[in-house]
Specification:
By secondary structure, this protein is an alpha+beta fold. The protein has two domains: 3-121, 2-Layer Sandwich (Ribosomal Protein S5, domain 2), CATH 3.30.230; 127-305, lpxc deacetylase, domain 1 (2-Layer Sandwich). It is built from eight helices and 21 strands. The protein has helices spanning 77-85, 108-117, 178-182, 192-200, 231-244, 262-274, 286-290, 299-305; strands at 3-5, 9-14, 21-28, 35-39, 48-50, 56-57, 64-66, 72-74, 91-95, 119-121, 127-131, 135-139, 142-147, 153-159, 167-173, 189-191, 213-216, 219-220, 251-252, 254-258, 279-283. The strands form six sheets. Strands 2-3-9-4-5 form a five-stranded mixed beta sheet, covered by helices on one side. A hairpin with a 7-residue loop joins β14 (153-159) and β15 (167-173). α1 (77-85) packs across α2 and α1 (77-85) crosses α5. The longest helix has 14 residues, at 231-244.
Length: 306
């Protein structure tokens, strides 16, 4: 069954890149509504943006969506991952600024708010996107691929020169609340040497040691250190989960990412949807639905990892 949240939940913070204070409200929505963003501060043009791969616009270091009127929302990936990971298919996300608040740099606070509100089943079947044959894209040394699988699986590898990160790989089956248990608390990360360059480009203006893991060679500069020894690759998987949610339906397939970022996953979705016989939409059976991300997600699991 499709699902929405039981009651509205709010989050207030600054945008990671804009540094602008913003409040985000997640509101219940009717069956078949999907996920939409609404810019409450935009009054003279269309403020509504569908959370859909066709609306992704090129930007650095985050995922941004925009509508035909030019209204945009950036850094949508963490809240989109939280919605997908909690099994929410329909919601209106209303915010009063240009960027989703970064909060602690992970999706844990979004997940906590959603699960505290509760998820309400709706009298409509869940339609899933079943991958029928492999689709792969490359940008430089980054690669992302989708291939057939019975549930959403993810296999991710990263490789950084900094010893604090190094080479990390992780494989997960994301069924039955695995996102909440394994990924949602992993924070965005960056190298200390890159911060000045990002600031010069008008990026990461709201970044701090409170909302990102900052590394300098072999050192972790963020107080408290890592939440997981492989927190970096887990966060990359969190990002990919949010970007894949822009497909507009749960994906039945195996995602493989090697050094993949937002642009690569966005291009992968475009290749999937514009390819020939690459996918089909299916009504989930009871057995299929039981293995979707979010089914079985529990706030108790979040408390164990946060």
């Amino acid at each position: 069954m499709q699902a929405t949240i039981r009651s509205a939940v709010s989050f207030t913070g600054t945008g990671l890149h804009s540094g602008v204070p913003v409040t985000l409200r997640i509101l219940p929505a009717s069956a078949e509504y999907g996920i939409w963003f609404r810019r409450a501060d935009v009054l003279d043009v269309d403020p509504l943006i569908a959370a859909h791969w066709e609306n992704v616009t090129p930007t650095r270091l985050c995922t941004q969506i925009s509508n035909a009127a030019g209204t945009s929302v950036s850094t949508v990936e963490h809240v989109m991952a939280a919605l997908a990971g909690c099994g929410v298919h329909n919601a209106l996300l209303e915010l009063d600024g240009p960027e989703v608040p970064i909060l602690d740099g992970s999706a844990a606070l979004f997940v906590d708010g959603i699960l505290a509100s509760g998820v309400r089943a709706m009298p409509a079947p869940v339609r899933a996107l079943q991958v029928l044959r492999p689709v792969e894209v490359r940008i430089g040394d980054a690669m992302a691929r989708l291939e057939p699988a019975e549930t959403l699986e993810m296999d991710f590898t990263i490789d950084f020169d900094d010893p604090a990160i190094g080479r990390q790989s992780k494989l997960l089956n994301l069924a039955n609340g695995a996102f909440v248990r394994e990924l949602c608390d992993s924070r965005t990360f960056c190298r200390h040497a890159d911060i000045k360059a990002m600031h010069a480009c008008g990026l990461a203006l709201g970044g701090s040691l409170e909302n990102a893991v900052v590394v300098d060679g072999a050192r972790i500069l963020t107080p408290g250190g890592l939440r997981h020894p492989d927190e970096a690759v887990r966060h990359k998987m969190l990002d990919a989960m949010g970007d894949l949610a822009l497909a507009g339906a749960p994906i039945l397939g195996r995602y493989t990412g090697v050094r993949a970022g937002h642009a690569v996953t966005a291009r992968l979705l475009r290749a999937l949807f514009t390819g020939v016989d690459t996918f089909r939409m299916v009504d989930c059976t009871r057995g299929t639905h039981r293995n979707l991300p979010g089914v079985g997600a529990d706030r108790v699991d979040l408390r164990r990892v946060a």
